[in-house]
Amino acid sequence: MPLNLPVLKNISRKTIVLASASPRRREILADMGLKFSVVTTLKPDENNPMLYKSRAEYVADTARMKAEEVFMRCQQDSQLPDADIVIGADTVVVKDENVLEKPKDKDHALAMLQQLNGQSHYVLTGVHIVFKLNDKVERIEFVERTEVRFDQIDPGAIQAYVDSGEPFDKAGGYGIQGQASLFVKSIHGDYWNVV
């Protein structure tokens, strides 16, 4: 994706909306020096990864649905920002082509982490950006893939991590930027994609 995209011109004067409740996505955009609002999607996460040819198509389509729903709502609802740019994203952990999203409870988090223990998996993030350019609605989308390998971790350490409460709002049940960084043996690809 070239850096001289027309959408980037005068970006400081554009109204940017993040279509995500993720605190990590907010931190990344803030660290980039961008001013933005957050408007989360009203559409429930109904996508089924098994209905897609690939897991990459799944995250790309989920990100698209989030971005487009928020963009349309921002155009129609005067209570919301009149968005020039809406950024939607979806991240999943994939192990043996099984999608591991956010754990439902402690048992689910424990099962996920045991599945990843001593193994490689990959993290996929689909990003979909909807923006106005010369009175036209344009779109940019991409999917980033990063391979992560966990070390062999003591079951007691996994249980303590689950008991800490950290896994519950994170795909795959872990956050690489938190305590689970100790589980990671290697990473091939973009670290920020995993964050």
Automatic annotation (TrEMBL):
Organism in which the protein naturally occurs: Parasitella parasitica
What is a single Pfam family found in this protein's UniProt entry?
Maf
Which cofactor is recorded for it? a divalent metal cation
HAMAP family referenced in this protein's UniProt entry, alphabetically = Maf (MF_00528)
* Gene3D superfamilies (alphabetical): 3.90.950.10
Cite the InterPro entries for this sequence: ITPase-like_fam, Maf-like
The Gene Ontology terms for molecular function here are: nucleoside triphosphate diphosphatase activity
According to the lineage, what is the superkingdom? Eukaryota
Protein known as? Uncharacterized protein
Show the SUPFAM superfamilies listed in the entry: ITPase-like (SSF52972)
